[in-house]
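Q: C-alpha coordinates for this one, please.
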Amino acid sequence: MGEVIRVRTTKHTSIVNITPQVREVVRKSGVKEGVCVVYVPHTTACVFVNEGADPDVVRDIVYALEKLIPWEDPAYAHMEGNSAAHIRSAIIGNSRIIPIINGELALGTWESVFLADFDGPRERKVIVKIFKE
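A: Here is the predicted structure, written as C-alpha coordinates:
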Protein backbone atom coordinates (compact mmCIF):
# COMPACT_ATOMS: atom_id res chain seq x y z
CA MET A 1 0.00 0.00 0.00
CA GLY A 2 1.39 3.33 -0.93
CA GLU A 3 0.84 6.66 -2.53
CA VAL A 4 2.78 9.55 -4.03
CA ILE A 5 2.13 12.96 -2.54
CA ARG A 6 3.04 15.92 -4.74
CA VAL A 7 4.15 19.10 -3.01
CA ARG A 8 4.74 22.43 -4.75
CA THR A 9 7.38 24.46 -2.93
CA THR A 10 7.43 28.24 -3.17
CA LYS A 11 10.92 29.37 -2.13
CA HIS A 12 14.54 28.43 -2.59
CA THR A 13 14.46 26.83 0.86
CA SER A 14 10.98 25.60 1.74
CA ILE A 15 9.91 23.55 4.72
CA VAL A 16 6.39 22.16 4.28
CA ASN A 17 4.35 20.36 6.92
CA ILE A 18 3.05 17.24 5.15
CA THR A 19 1.56 15.55 8.24
CA PRO A 20 -2.08 15.87 7.06
CA GLN A 21 -1.31 14.22 3.70
CA VAL A 22 0.68 11.41 5.35
CA ARG A 23 -2.12 10.84 7.90
CA GLU A 24 -4.62 10.60 5.03
CA VAL A 25 -2.56 7.86 3.33
CA VAL A 26 -2.48 5.95 6.64
CA ARG A 27 -6.23 6.41 7.10
CA LYS A 28 -7.03 5.21 3.57
CA SER A 29 -4.81 2.15 4.01
CA GLY A 30 -6.96 0.83 6.84
CA VAL A 31 -3.83 -0.48 8.59
CA LYS A 32 -4.22 -0.46 12.38
CA GLU A 33 -0.75 -1.71 13.36
CA GLY A 34 2.34 -1.36 11.20
CA VAL A 35 4.81 1.20 9.89
CA CYS A 36 4.67 4.16 7.58
CA VAL A 37 7.71 4.90 5.45
CA VAL A 38 8.01 8.44 4.10
CA TYR A 39 10.63 8.76 1.33
CA VAL A 40 11.72 11.62 -0.92
CA PRO A 41 13.34 10.58 -4.24
CA HIS A 42 15.27 13.84 -4.69
CA THR A 43 18.92 14.60 -3.92
CA THR A 44 18.27 18.20 -2.84
CA ALA A 45 15.23 17.54 -0.65
CA CYS A 46 14.64 15.54 2.52
CA VAL A 47 12.09 14.65 5.18
CA PHE A 48 12.28 15.03 8.92
CA VAL A 49 10.13 14.86 12.05
CA ASN A 50 10.22 17.75 14.49
CA GLU A 51 8.00 20.21 16.33
CA GLY A 52 5.12 21.47 14.25
CA ALA A 53 3.28 23.56 16.84
CA ASP A 54 5.63 26.56 16.86
CA PRO A 55 6.70 27.85 13.40
CA ASP A 56 9.78 29.43 15.00
CA VAL A 57 11.29 25.94 15.31
CA VAL A 58 11.31 25.55 11.52
CA ARG A 59 12.69 29.09 11.13
CA ASP A 60 15.47 28.22 13.57
CA ILE A 61 16.28 25.02 11.66
CA VAL A 62 16.55 26.97 8.39
CA TYR A 63 18.69 29.63 10.08
CA ALA A 64 21.07 27.03 11.54
CA LEU A 65 21.39 25.19 8.23
CA GLU A 66 22.18 28.45 6.42
CA LYS A 67 24.84 29.20 9.02
CA LEU A 68 26.37 25.70 9.03
CA ILE A 69 26.13 25.04 5.29
CA PRO A 70 26.16 28.36 3.41
CA TRP A 71 24.67 28.47 -0.07
CA GLU A 72 27.85 29.83 -1.63
CA ASP A 73 31.37 28.68 -0.82
CA PRO A 74 34.31 28.98 -3.22
CA ALA A 75 35.47 25.49 -2.18
CA TYR A 76 32.33 23.77 -3.57
CA ALA A 77 33.18 21.80 -6.73
CA HIS A 78 29.73 20.71 -7.97
CA MET A 79 29.18 22.53 -11.26
CA GLU A 80 25.40 23.03 -10.92
CA GLY A 81 25.92 25.48 -8.06
CA ASN A 82 23.63 23.72 -5.60
CA SER A 83 26.17 21.86 -3.46
CA ALA A 84 24.67 23.24 -0.26
CA ALA A 85 21.30 21.72 -1.14
CA HIS A 86 22.89 18.30 -1.66
CA ILE A 87 24.85 18.52 1.59
CA ARG A 88 21.84 19.61 3.65
CA SER A 89 19.72 16.81 2.23
CA ALA A 90 22.44 14.20 2.80
CA ILE A 91 22.85 15.23 6.43
CA ILE A 92 19.13 15.22 7.26
CA GLY A 93 18.15 12.17 5.21
CA ASN A 94 15.62 11.25 2.58
CA SER A 95 13.36 8.92 4.59
CA ARG A 96 11.63 8.41 7.92
CA ILE A 97 9.91 5.40 9.46
CA ILE A 98 6.93 6.17 11.71
CA PRO A 99 5.05 3.46 13.64
CA ILE A 100 1.31 3.11 13.12
CA ILE A 101 -0.57 2.30 16.33
CA ASN A 102 -4.37 1.99 16.47
CA GLY A 103 -4.59 3.30 12.90
CA GLU A 104 -2.70 6.52 13.67
CA LEU A 105 0.82 7.81 13.14
CA ALA A 106 2.64 7.38 16.46
CA LEU A 107 3.94 10.94 16.52
CA GLY A 108 4.65 12.79 19.76
CA THR A 109 2.32 15.52 20.96
CA TRP A 110 4.13 18.32 19.14
CA GLU A 111 5.66 16.32 16.27
CA SER A 112 4.94 16.81 12.59
CA VAL A 113 6.37 15.39 9.37
CA PHE A 114 8.12 17.93 7.14
CA LEU A 115 9.37 18.01 3.57
CA ALA A 116 12.42 20.25 3.18
CA ASP A 117 13.29 21.48 -0.30
CA PHE A 118 16.68 23.18 -0.51
CA ASP A 119 16.68 23.84 -4.28
CA GLY A 120 13.24 25.21 -5.07
CA PRO A 121 10.81 26.35 -5.97
CA ARG A 122 9.60 23.22 -7.73
CA GLU A 123 7.25 20.27 -7.44
CA ARG A 124 8.52 17.47 -5.20
CA LYS A 125 7.31 13.89 -4.85
CA VAL A 126 6.97 12.22 -1.48
CA ILE A 127 6.42 8.47 -1.53
CA VAL A 128 4.41 7.12 1.41
CA LYS A 129 4.38 3.33 1.87
CA ILE A 130 2.34 1.55 4.53
CA PHE A 131 3.35 -1.86 5.83
CA LYS A 132 0.97 -3.94 7.89
CA GLU A 133 2.29 -5.71 10.98
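A few notes: The chain has a mean pLDDT of 97. The chain is about 25% helix and 40% strand.
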